[in-house]
Amino acid sequence: MPLPGPRRLAAVLAAAGLAAGCSAGVAGTPGVPPAAPSASASASALPAVPTLPVGTDDPWAEYQALAERERTDLDARQRALVAFGDLRAEVNDGGFAQYFANAAADHVQEALDAADTAEVPAVADLVRQALRRLGAGSPPYPGRTERQDLVAALDAAGTTFDALDEQFYVLEETTDLDAAMRRLATAGR
Hints:
Blueprint: H1 5-15, H2 59-67, H3 76-101, H4 108-117, H5 121-134, H6 144-156, H7 162-174, H8 177-186
Helix pairs in contact: 1-3, 1-7, 2-3, 3-4, 3-7, 3-8, 4-5, 5-7
């Protein structure tokens, strides 16, 4: 039986010789989104998020800084980077079911557009396949509550996203999606 997303990513990172615990989100580790601060952490204990210089080589650092801002304050390039980073983080953490159940998928069209802009059509294709499996193959895509209901109905029917999740994990292993994020981070600059 294949390992689920987060364990699979941890196994890949371990095989690559990266530090243990990377799957939890060590900032600055290529291919691993930084962990969000826990709800129990006090606001005063959290460091301020610096504004990153243009052309940073760490797309996850830029993603983290941007993801903490209001989406309405972001330009199109920044929204694309956040949508693509959210997609990667959610699917790697819990598969497409988790992605669709969470707020990140509110921006699925931006994630699709970002995959196209970043020249990773295989990612866009997998997302479109997952949307069809969800029962939402074309825009307008359902809102979060409807997506959660659709995921629950699929689960109750014994239908899963496992094969698509596995294909996504293979893409993570075989395609430099960090380079795709760097292309998004520098698009239009």
